[in-house]
Structure formats: C-alpha cells, structure tokens
Amino acid sequence: MTQKFDVVVIGAGPGGYVAAIKAAQLGLKTACIEKYQDKEGKIALGGTCLNVGCIPSKALLDSSWKFHEAKAGFAIHGIEAKGVSIDVPAMVARKSNIVKNLTGGVSTLFKANGVTLLEGHGKLLAGKQVEVTALDGTTQVVQAEHVIIASGSKPVDIPPAPVDQDVIVDSTGALEFQSVPKSLGVIGAGVIGLELGSVWARLGADVTVIEALDKFLPAADEQIAKEALKTLTKQGLKIRLGARVTGSEVKKKQVTVNFTDAEGEQQLTFDKLIVAVGRRPVTTDLLATDSGVDLDERGFIYVNDQCATSVPGVYAIGDVVRGAMLAHKASEEGVMVAERIAGHKAQMNYDLIPSVIYTHPEIAWVGKTEQQLKGEGVAVNVGTFPFAASGRAMAANDTGGMVKVIADATTDRVLGVHVIGPSAAELVQQGAIGMEFGTSAEDLGMMVFSHPTLSEALHEAALAVNGHAIHVVNRKKR
Q1: Is 278 annotated as contributing to ligand binding?
Q2: Which domains does the chain have, with CATH numbers?
Q3: What is the pLDDT of residues 361-410, one digit of tens each?
Q4: Which of 11, 333, 344, 362 is deepest in the core (most CB within 10 A)?
Q5: PROSITE patterns attached here (predicted)?
C-alpha cells in the first residue's frame, strides 16, 4: 500500500530538514528523503552545510586561527609559546566529530518532531508522487499532498582542472588534507576559495589564489572589498586577479596550472590545487519528464517569491532555486513554505539576507552596497568607524577593519551595513535586526550600547552618518 503524507521533502540539508521539522510542528504528517552517506556508509542528515560545507570549514578556520595566534599573536600579550606545532590529522578528526554530533542532532530532532526519514534518492513524478530509490536499489512510491524540493547544490567542475580528490580537489577534498601542502593553488577568490585558502595559509602553506574576474569580491561594498584585498594580501595570500585557467597537468604528485592574465601566459606548480569556482543546483534524475516542474535557463528550478513551482502544491527551496546559495536563506525559505502549506500567509524579506565570509577578519554585509545605491541614483550619507579606534578591539589585539553604515540622504533610513573586522557577522546581524524594523541611522545613534564592546563600532558608524561620531573625527560635509 502506498504511504501517504501531507508533506514530502526531498533533501535533508539546512533547507529540507528545517522545512520538515517546521511542517511536522504545524501538525502535518511529514516525510523527508535523504541519500547522502557518511564515510561509514550511513545516511547523514544536514546536507552540504553540515557535512562538507559551512560547519566543517568553520571548525578548520577556528583551529587554524588559534594555531596562528599561538605562533604569532601571543607574544604581545606577554605569553611565551615556543615550539608550537599543528597535528593536522587531529585537527581534521575534531572537525569530523563536530559534524557527526550535529548530523546526529538532526536525526534526534526528526524523531522528536515525528518526521519520517526515508533513506534513498527522491524523484518527483506526476501527480505529486515521489519515487524513493533505496541504497540497495529497491524502490517505493509515496503520495504527497505537498512536495518541497530541497536537493541543494554541488561544486562546479571546470574542464581545465578536473578534480581527482587527490592532487586536484574540490571544497570537500580540501577539508580532508592530512598534512599541510608546501604550495597550494586555489582557483576562485569567492567565499569558499578565500576561507579554505586562509585555513592552509595559516598552517604554513604558500597559497596562490587564481581568480578570473578583474574585480575582487564584486558582490561586496567596494570600500570593504578593497580593505579585504589589502588585509588578505598582507596575511600572505597571493591573489591573482584577471587570471583565467587554461589547463593543468598532474605529474609526480604535483600539479602545474596554466593560466593567462594581463601579462600573458603564466604557469605555476603546486602540491595541491583547490577548485572553488562556485556551485550548481543538483537536479540530476530529480524530476520525471511529466512532473510539470520547470527549470530556468541556468538549470535552477523556477519558483515565485513564495518558492512555489509551476505545479500547484510543489515547492522548491535553497540552492536549487534563484538567489544566494546560503544555508540561512534555505532554512528560512523552508519555514516560509511549511507555514504557507499550513495556511499561514508567511513571506520572506529577500532584501535583508546577510552574507558572511569567515576569513579573519570576517567580512559581512546586509542590504545594499554604496555602488549599488549610486547606480540606482539614490543619494546616500555614509558613516564609517575603524576598529583601530575601538577600545575593545585594542584590548583583544584585533584592530583591523571597519564598520560602514549607509543611509538614505533624504529619510535617514539605513540601507546597508558592511563590516570587515572582528565579529563582523554578529555586528551585521545587529544591523539586519534594525533594518528589518526600518531603523534610521539616528535611531541606532540614540540607542545605548554597552562599553567597551565591538558593537560600539556600529553605534559610532551610525552616528558618523550624520557627522555626530564621538570617538573619531567626523568628515566635513562637502
């Protein structure tokens, strides 16, 4: 007999598992399908983010930063640390243990909320039926009133540098190095490339980042991106912009990369090469030809602002649809869709999704950039505050970077908050909370911020928008 559910979710990543839990909490009979297996051959929930993305990369970033501080940052505090070394296998094992704890936690939440886990590959058929192919090849078909597709994304392959997960790796392989490569190449100066490049550079690798675009971090505010390029270069990352990879050759456990830049044909040899040129939606064998669900010209599932596909009752969320490929965006889409299925009129504010790059210093932003607003012809006032003037940042010996607040010149409404510096992600989230409630720069400036905190930098930047900063000289208005 065919199993019937109110909601069937395909994929248990940060979009899918959150959607499944929320739907179950709303009283809907819910199933979630997942096929990803861990190293032990067991189904692991949490998708790319928990298993081979956000979480493991942050674990390595934090471990590598602590090592860097012990080697280069303790002396100024009067702490003597001689002969500090890194045990890479132990660091990677810690990362794997964190992943195991979190994926196991999702499994526990499924049980606690009454979500049925169906192990295997999900494929949408006509009439909101979903075929589940188990790991042993057996199939079953389940019937759903509503289907949520959350199949996620995977790394983009490029023909000039085919991944072998040995010498040439993707982001997944870069989390599993058992020793520090002497020389490391990274193709792509995006979030993943910069984060993974930072990890291994801190541990002693000579890192070169090869980026095809002429502009560094084009999605970020130009002032922040310029500061980031300067800072990361100072940290030892060699960032080659306008460099297009044309080929590669693996010989004797090394890879020679050919690329062209403004100076012509170039060649560099590395012990390891990370390919981090972006991600693409996973739609392989996901949709039967008569499912009725449409893909757009880039291979993403077409949805409207509420994540509804062209088939009534079928939704798609996360990396497989338009918009930023961010775990938190996927999760909130999952919540919105579950609530809409349950009859609520939930909406999502796509204008205020924070972006974060977890280098050190962190780079984060929410809202619009100064160049975007200028392009739209919006007159703005801008306030900045450097962490070099922050007492809390000085105490922590972490004074690089700044906070930037952009406000509408007419209404004073905050349109963007951009940070490079310590705890940038947390400070930007404060900005996002204020912006969600339509805050003005004056509103932020009138609030009481505890002292001494890094948050005061946001307070001062908001004051600086209208020339009222206290702890930095205000720029004279032209």
Answers
A1: yes
A2: 3-155+280-350 (3.50.50.60), 168-277 (3.50.50.60), 361-465 (3.30.390.30)
A3: 999 999 999 999 999 999 999 999 999 999 999 999 999 999 999 999 99
A4: 11
A5: PYRIDINE_REDOX_1
